[in-house]
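sry for the spam today, last one i promise. struct tokens for design, 734 residues
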């Protein structure tokens, strides 16, 4: 479960871009200095293949052989059964062939997992269970990092076997914690069971969800005590087990446990300092409407079902469970406030890694997962903040006609918060919704790669998916009922449907997410026509934005070099509105709450330097109007884009190439700019508008404004694009 930060080989290219940009502007011809070869000797220069020369060759899906000790089918979700596991790897995974063998492991424990698929009679008849696999010792399977715990997902509901992988990898590319995964063939007691997705388990651990692991800490302290007091192996295990499940010792320093010599109250303070522990990290939580299992669980004031996945027995430490409850309640209280501040004066963003929720929402929205706000939604607490992710359980998503009713199969709908709570509420904050909209247009290259990966994956695993479908037999289909009369909804049919659905979904979101008041998720907080605003800078009204393409359309545009005072005037035709406030970019209150009425205007003034004046930045003014009792009457918002390019003449057009805007003459030649090749695992094919690809240096004749982004080609099947907001050399969570 990693955040990939691919910058090997990037540093040299990026350095060269910086050196060149310091001595040239767009359109200037640059000659490299004569001593370039001395700086980059020929034998050290990175080799960049031409995109047209890249082929992926033939390779085979890895194979896993599971053999149970008694030769029977494991069916329990609660009890593990012993088994032997063997891997047959090849191609890009060949180096991990001997990672886990009879010589260095081989043994494992196996149990079933899943909910909806587990209860299906047709799945049981085919023995197509999903499993949790616990190896006897840690192993670095497929290069995903050493661990004992792994999942084998049957994808019973997903005939294409693509949806989970696409969603997990997409979320990882955005920078969320995610479950690394790959397809495998499974043989169970020598019987072919079909195509599976092997994934990391969702857990707190190094390289997975990287935060404090309290259960591992319990083992460390227990082992330290056992060593110091010469406990037997049996007593050491009893102590470890007690400390993993009775977490009160973390704050008290003592634990009560029955060892071979009887019950003992053990003082552990010689082996850790309880007063120096940071209790603001180390909690994995599932937003789970079922609230099943033996986990610590509760419902919030707004009815959100919370289940503690790790530590599972958190309720045994009242201090820690109260911390999680209080943090969650304070966050929720701020979220449900009209101003998004709670009674403690804190904004919801003070409890939340906002970027993670933006990327989390985008993943669920892109794939149209209908379980949004109800099941399989994970977050973890680290450093006193809620971090969303990993994304999980997307086999129902992306227009899956096998599982979804007809009204949900289309791609022209928002994913709605089924619990009508956190996610619906946060979309009522125009600043958060704009962050989502802007982020969508930042990741054009990633969505383009996602769509192009479908054909790559089909060539890799398609034959195996067909074979798996033949084994599973005819599938019931909710939406396309004509296929249920003895006709199999096969891999090819679902693949073409998924490909068409995702292409349509991306285009629909392109159209919807550029609208300033998109009413995302039908949140209800839309701009009121009875709440009117005007805005000026030093007495001059701001210009409307005429150049789109950067992201959401803004209402106004302002130059990054602007100085002076901005004045915002608010008027209303609401007879019950008595006051209003203004918030800038979510958290900054502009002045005080002012009186407002049908005959009373509210005028707010602030220095332009309060805005984010970075070229291309978007600024959001949120204007809530209140009734006399303090409840929300209505709201509006104003979007101000900072841009050094204000407008174009009728004879001109604006061309957005990556982050740069070029003004070109209509009908006259324009040379497409260079592309800095800085994505490891990819080669740039050229600039694209989503349809046509233009090589850098190619001449085009523009007739209207256009948006171009770089089209990248993978250098291997599983090249992973890094669109995270982080910049570091490690490939594990930071």
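last one done:
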């Amino acid at each position: 479960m990693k955040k990939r930060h691919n910058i090997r080989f990037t540093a040299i290219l990026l350095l060269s871009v910086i050196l060149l940009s310091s001595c040239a502007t767009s359109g200037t011809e640059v000659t490299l200095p004569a001593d370039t070869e001395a700086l980059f000797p020929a034998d050290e220069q990175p080799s960049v293949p031409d995109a047209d020369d890249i082929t992926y060759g033939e390779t085979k899906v890895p194979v896993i052989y599971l053999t149970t000790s008694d030769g029977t089918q494991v069916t329990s979700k609660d009890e593990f059964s012993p088994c032997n596991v063997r891997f047959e790897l090849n191609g890009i995974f060949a180096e991990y062939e001997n990672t886990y063998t009879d010589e260095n492991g081989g043994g494992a424990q196996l149990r079933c997992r899943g909910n909806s698929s587990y209860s299906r009679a047709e799945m049981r008849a085919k023995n197509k269970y999903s499993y949790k696999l616990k190896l006897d010792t840690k192993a670095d399977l497929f290069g995903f990092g050493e661990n004992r715990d792994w999942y084998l997902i049957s994808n019973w509901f997903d005939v294409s076997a693509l949806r989970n992988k696409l969603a997990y990898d997409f979320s990882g590319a955005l920078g969320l914690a995610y479950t690394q995964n790959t397809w495998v063939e499974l043989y169970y007691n020598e019987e072919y069971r079909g195509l599976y997705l092997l994934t990391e388990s969702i857990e707190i651990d190094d390289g997975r969800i990287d935060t404090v692991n309290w259960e591992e800490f319990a083992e460390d302290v227990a082992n330290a005590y056992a060593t110091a007091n010469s406990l037997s192996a049996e007593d050491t295990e009893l102590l470890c087990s007690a400390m993993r499940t009775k977490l009160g010792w973390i704050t008290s320093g003592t634990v009560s446990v029955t060892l071979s010599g009887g019950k003992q109250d053990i003082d552990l303070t010689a082996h850790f300092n309880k007063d120096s522990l940071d209790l603001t990290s180390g909690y994995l939580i599932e937003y789970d409407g079922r609230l099943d299992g033996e986990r610590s669980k509760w419902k919030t004031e707004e009815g959100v079902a919370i289940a503690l996945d790790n530590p599972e027995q958190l309720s045994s430490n009242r201090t820690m469970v109260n911390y999680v409850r209080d943090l969650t309640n304070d966050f929720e209280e701020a979220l449900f406030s009209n101003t998004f501040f709670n009674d403690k004066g804190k904004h919801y963003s003070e409890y939340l890694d906002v970027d993670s929720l933006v990327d989390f929402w985008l993943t669920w929205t892109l794939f149209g997962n209908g379980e949004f706000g109800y099941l399989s939604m994970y977050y973890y607490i680290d450093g006193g903040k809620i971090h969303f992710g990993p994304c999980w359980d997307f086999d129902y998503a992306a227009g899956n006609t096998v599982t979804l009713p007809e009204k949900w199969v289309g791609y022209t709908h928002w994913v709605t918060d089924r619990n009508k709570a956190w996610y619906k509420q946060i979309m009522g904050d125009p600043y958060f919704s704009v962050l989502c909209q802007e982020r969508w247009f930042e990741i054009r290259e990633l969505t383009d790669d996602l769509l192009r990966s479908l054909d790559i994956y089909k060539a890799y695993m398609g034959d195996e998916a067909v074979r798996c479908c033949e084994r599973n037999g005819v599938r019931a289909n909710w939406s396309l009922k004509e296929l249920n009369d003895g006709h199999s909804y096969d891999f090819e049919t679902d693949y073409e449907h998924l490909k068409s659905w995702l292409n349509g979904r991306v285009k629909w979101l392109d159209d919807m997410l550029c609208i300033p008041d998109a009413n995302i998720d039908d949140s209800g907080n839309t701009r009121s026509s009875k709440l009117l605003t005007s805005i000026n800078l030093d007495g001059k009204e701001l210009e409307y934005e005429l150049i789109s393409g950067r992201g959401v359309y803004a209402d106004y545009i302002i130059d990054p070099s602007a100085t002076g005072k901005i004045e915002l005037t608010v008027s209303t035709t609401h007879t019950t509105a008595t006051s209003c406030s203004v918030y800038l970019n979510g958290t900054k209150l502009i002045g005080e709450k002012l009186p407002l009425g049908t005959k009373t205007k509210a005028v707010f003034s602030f220095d332009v330097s309060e805005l984010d004046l970075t070229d291309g930045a978007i600024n959001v003014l949120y204007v809530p109007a209140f009734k006399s009792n303090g409840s929300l009457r209505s709201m509006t918002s104003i979007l101000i884009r900072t841009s050094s390019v204000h407008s174009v003449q009728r004879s001109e057009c604006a061309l957005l190439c990556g982050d740069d805007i070029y003004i070109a003459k209509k009908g006259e030649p324009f040379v497409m700019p260079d592309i800095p090749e800085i994505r490891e695992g990819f080669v740039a094919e050229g600039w694209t508008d989503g349809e046509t690809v233009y090589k850098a240096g190619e001449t085009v004749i523009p007739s209207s404004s256009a948006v171009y982004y770089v089209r990248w080609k993978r250098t291997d099947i599983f090249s992973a694009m890094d669109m995270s907001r982080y910049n570091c050399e490690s490939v594990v969570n930071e």
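The chain has a mean pLDDT of 87. ok im logging off now
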